[in-house]
Prior knowledge:
Chain A is α+β, with helices and mostly antiparallel strands. Chain A has one domain: Hotdog Thioesterase (Thiol Ester Dehydrase, Chain A, Roll), CATH 3.10.129. Helix content of chain A is 22%, strand content 35%. Chain A is built from 2 helices and 6 strands, in the order H-E-E-H-E-E-E-E. In chain A, strands 1-2-4-5-6-3 form a 6-stranded antiparallel β-sheet, with helices on one face. The model of chain A has no long low-confidence stretch (mean pLDDT 91). Chains in contact: A-B, A-C, A-D, B-C, B-D, C-D. The interface between A and B is medium-sized, with 28 and 28 residues. Strand 3 (80-88) of chain C pairs antiparallel with strand 3 of chain D, so a sheet runs across the interface.
Amino acid sequence: MTVQMSIDEMTAFLDEVFPQVRDxxxxxxxDAEGLVMRLRVAERHLRPGGTVSGPAMFGLADVAAxxxxxxxxxxxxxxxxxxxxxxxxxxxxxxxxxLARAEVLKLGRALSVIEVRxxxxxxxxxxxxxxxxxxxxxxxxG
Amino acid sequence: MTVQMSIDEMTAFLDEVFPQVRDxxxxxxxDAEGLVMRLRVAERHLRPGGTVSGPAMFGLADVAAxxxxxxxxxxxxxxxxxxxxxxxxxxxxxxxxxLARAEVLKLGRALSVIEVRxxxxxxxxxxxxxxxxxxxxxxxxG
Amino acid sequence: MTVQMSIDEMTAFLDEVFPQVRDxxxxxxxDAEGLVMRLRVAERHLRPGGTVSGPAMFGLADVAAxxxxxxxxxxxxxxxxxxxxxxxxxxxxxxxxxLARAEVLKLGRALSVIEVRxxxxxxxxxxxxxxxxxxxxxxxxG
Amino acid sequence: MTVQMSIDEMTAFLDEVFPQVRDxxxxxxxDAEGLVMRLRVAERHLRPGGTVSGPAMFGLADVAAxxxxxxxxxxxxxxxxxxxxxxxxxxxxxxxxxLARAEVLKLGRALSVIEVRxxxxxxxxxxxxxxxxxxxxxxxxG
Lengths: 142, 142, 142, 142
């Protein structure tokens, strides 16, 4: 699938529609092969003991799935998550960023289905995997 | 099922193990009939347009499932979420807190399964529903 | 929500669009309060040891969610399951039918979201729960 | 991960513990790289119009996840599915077998997490994907 936006365009778009994640996430890679996003892990993402919280991982998977969809169809702020099933498999390593690899499995007219795997940076076994469905609103004719 | 802890005890326990949600959530009700928790919606939980973000709703469902499990088995900080499947069904109302109603469907030796429904306060149609599985670590004998 | 079809009409419709479940399932109740369907457990639904198989329970949840949706919108054979998340919680009792109770949580123009709980007949603790999403095709104008 | 059983041993084990799938499924490949299983599509797996039914696809994903787990830990008939989240993405092609590719994402002492993708034979876009969790019973000491 062809990518419709550059990383700079996507980052500017995210700043506008997801201002609260601006300081948290960055796009590492976005091309025909796939998408990689980084969660810059900070104090507010942690549970006692230093592990990254579930909601922080969910948030990363969610924004990665959104960006992977937007990369294909162009910026449509109104796309919304309708379902997410996430498996938490391993405790993230303390003091490490989390990387998300997203793959668009289906891009239909109304729905996209995305698989996301999360890794502690530098490790090979995923800490979590998620399947997400985004609902894509129909074009409003001008 | 009998509740093993009072709301005050549970709130003190949450302060210790989930310090980052201290200002965000409160227990409205916790008894044999079920659990209700409140997300005090603040600026940091919102998306542009005033709707509550997906990660904020996921976080509320996750902590409600945790508290519902702890209420039955007593405080075990090490219980961890292994799976969550969440359906986002309606846009939460702007300017409203979100209430979570949690029901423990199974409490086994190793796993608990919890159903959570989320509502904008004062409305009857749920904004989201989630099914969560918590893994409960075996007792360490002293 | 108002029911658009009688049990007889729905049974005739199912015979046409799901002929392979004709002998397996029956509608016990279908009204504004909800839907109950029965799986008449037979040899082909069992695993060694006499327990009902996962696919047989999935199939019952799936058809119950479909019927619950059709009951509200009238017969639209083309509605298709897009997602199902199912938790298997207890071993069904040997020699018992399975009852499914379905609740429509959302009925939108394009999607319905349904919660289904499965029980061994005569017991109160659910053997499984499922959340399903059905995609409802747009009306074709004649 | 090392495979503990040959395809012949696994097929004999499946005949014993899943006799009802004996004629339906076969193991195409089972080695350190992964597992591929085939659903030999027959009349009983079809919906009107010739498409493979949801329960038939669920059943294939379930048995593929089971076999992928057994291949690593050896035959333990008592392992049970605790959760499955499945996305149905495309209509399977009429007259084609379905192939399942399973990947074990986590193999813990008590749980395994498996990702399965289903394809109409000869096509590249998956018709469905599923994430499954199996509960592995503790060894009973003799």
